[in-house]
Amino acid sequence: MLGIVIGTLCLFGFIAVWRRRYGFYGPGFGHGCGPGRGRYGHGRFGWRRGFGLYRVFEELDTSPGQEKAIRGALGELRGAFAALRPQLVGARQSLATAITSEPFDAAALEHGFSGRLAEASSVSSALAAAVGKIHDALDADQRKRLARLVDALPYGRAF
């Protein structure tokens, strides 16, 4: 009986330590955040964010300078997509309005989309710039391995 009680207490203690270590209580609760510990205090890239990118860097065997250049290019691309997000919300609202209107008005829907999604060309140019920076940072063998990784992705799934 005493063994069951001690075992149960040990299990509860292990779960509490594990939850504090891996961030279920939010930032600042025992994560060990500090210099060089990542955003959430777990190693080189953090626990939650960048895990897939870490796998890609391991697969490509990149140097820290290459990783910094790739992260910078992806950060700029993320900024371009963040600027497009309000336009996508407006386009979604235009679509919802067109669906709820009794006589369907295709011209109003096209006008709403064309006005709101004009910034999509800026995202495509930002994508081209980011891919160009990544291309410049990698050598020929790393580019071939990255192309194989991108080609092998299942539909709709990121790294």
Q: Explain this structure to me?
A:
With 159 residues, this protein is mainly α. The chain has 2 domains: 1-48, no CATH class; 50-159, Four Helix Bundle (Hemerythrin (Met), subunit A). It has 6 helices and no strands. The longest helix has 37 residues, at 64-100. The chain is flat and about 75 Å long. It starts with a helix and ends in an 8-residue tail after the last helix.
Number of domains: 2
Fold-level CATH name of the largest domain: Four Helix Bundle (Hemerythrin (Met), subunit A)
Please state the second-level CATH architecture of the largest domain. Answer: Up-down Bundle
Uncertain ranges: 27-48
Query: Based on CA inertia axes, which overall geometry fits?
Result: flat
Largest sheet: none
The oligomeric status of these chains comes to single chain
User: What is the string of SSEs from the N terminus onward?
Assistant: HHHHHH
Rg to the nearest angstrom? 23 Å
Q: Approximately how much beta-strand content do the residues carry?
A: under 5%
CATH class of the largest domain: Mainly Alpha
Going by helix content, strand content and strand pairing, the class is mainly alpha
The count of DSSP E runs of length 2 or more, i.e. the number of strands, is 0
For the termini, the CA-CA separation is 48 Å
